Amino acid sequence: MKKLKKITRLFCLALFLLLAVTGIAITGAAPTPSNSRNRPENNDTLIEMVDEKEEDEEKP
Questions:
Q1: What is the pLDDT of residues 4-53, one digit of tens each?
Q2: How far apart are CA 41 and CA 9, in angstroms?
Q3: Domain annotation covers residue 40
Q4: Position 23 in a domain
């Protein structure tokens, strides 16, 4: 009886491992969470505009 119980447990373990590997193979790995904490919450542009040199405008 102990040997049958041990074989049944081993079979169930192998079955669960096979089901897990099959599920990952079909659906792919779980997606990684995005780093939304690092993004600014407002939609304003955070780029400063550089003024053009005044020397270029003075030339004829």
A1: 999 999 999 999 999 988 988 887 777 776 666 665 566 666 677 777 76
A2: 52
A3: no
A4: yes
